[in-house]
Amino acid sequence: MRILTVVGNRPQFIKAAAVSGRLREVASEQLIHTGQHYDDELSAIFFEELGLPAPDRQLGLGTGSNARQTARMLGALEELLAADPRPDLVLVYGDTNSTLAGGLAGAQAGVAVAHVEAGMRSFDRTMPEELNRVLTDHLATLLLCSSLAAVENLAAERVAGSVELVGDVMVDVAELLRPRALAREQTLERHGVAPGEYVLATAHRAGTVDDPERLEALVELLEALPGPVVLPLHPRTRKRLEAAGLLARLAAAPSMRITAPLGYLDFASLLVHARAVVTDSGGVQKEAYLARVRCLTLRDRTEWVETVAVGWNTLVGLDRDAALRALERPTPHEHPSLYGDGRAGERVVDALTTLPLTLTRP
Question: Residue 334 falls within a domain, yes or no?
């Protein structure tokens, strides 16, 4: 069985790390890195730390608007799918432009498409990620779900593909690497913080940083957080802050520790030891839950609704006062296993390798 796997950013590297090694024991995989990740050097760090096989092809298509980026990816992937021998299946992860491009290219070529992390919904169509995941789900042959809520969402939408509940592949990686993250004390020392006494913050989404008023609200919220605050600064966010004249102001805040983007283990070490996480990232929300760290989400909606329902995640938008109130609430006592038992990667591979090769798109 020949599988073309498409990845392009940090969360997808993590997810693929739970699958690609096992998959290559029973099938022939070609790993394509679209280059959607903002930093090729940082991408290499993730591949090395996660034990992910090196990409067979790097497309280098990381710039431009969502539409232009997706269009360029489609053209490049179309050529790969036309090569001889043609893949039997295209495997995509999550909700990025790389996901949609891989899924659509496969469907248009008449190749079966499998979508890992299918069925997640924020029900906010203004988010590019929501459009990507909905469209990919409705063209996929095999939809592999992280949670029961995702399965129920797909049933409500009457998708044409086959739906399976496999659990969350990020649980596999988190459990495997948690001991190394906990022991990585030098990361905390380097940032001058102590376990349980700091907030870890990230922000990168267009809806958070592209509008000047919302960007200033973000700065005000971060300034108000009780310190110290460690902020690995996404290049997109840095550019917006510099253009608005807000970077120097934020850096001058006594509690703020601004750093460059981090590799998986450094970030995971800061995460597992943090008092709380403040983020607009979907992946970081889930990582915080798996690490049993309270999360304040800088959005009005989330696809990870289960984490909100059990009290570990609070949607605060860019409301400074709401964030401060949420930060003072006690940590919940219960921490249910929402996303599986750490064997999702095995189930994904089983599902892929038992898929009839005669299947194409619905």
Answer: no
User: Is the separation of the CB atoms in 358 and 167 below 8 Å?
Assistant: no
Nearest CA to 15 out of 313, 23, 152, 215 is that of 23
| Residue of 138, 191, 204, 273 marked catalytic | 204
Average pLDDT per 10 consecutive residues for the chain, totaling 362 residues = 94 94 96 80 79 92 88 96 93 97 97 97 93 98 96 98 97 94 94 97 94 97 96 94 97 96 94 97 95 97 96 98 96 94 96 76 43
Q: Is residue 141 part of a domain?
A: yes
How far, in Å, are 142, 150, 161, 171, 188 from residue 154 at the CA level? 12, 6, 9, 22, 41
Contact (Cβ atoms closer than 8 angstroms) between residue 312 and residue 288 = yes
Phi-psi group of 151: left, alpha or beta (phi > 0 → left; psi -120 to 50 → alpha; rest → beta): alpha
Region class of 68: left (phi > 0), else alpha (psi between -120 and 50), else beta = alpha
Give domain status of residue 156, yes or no: yes
Burial zone of 345 (CB within 10 Å; 0-12 exposed, 13-18 middle, 19+ buried): buried
Contact 261, 42 (CB under 8 A): yes
Q: Say if 361 falls within a structural domain.
A: no
Residues 294 and 269 in one domain: yes
Question: Which CATH number does the domain housing residue 120 bear?
Answer: 3.40.50.2000
- What is the rounded distance in angstroms from the CA atom of residue 214 to the CA atom of residue 154? 33
pLDDT for the residue 10: 86
Whole domain around residue 289: which residue ranges? 176-328
Q: Which two tokens stand for residue 130?
A: 């929501």
204 is catalytic: yes
In 10 A of CB 149, how many CB atoms?
18
Same domain flag for 108 and 68: yes
Residues making up the chain, counted from first to last: 362
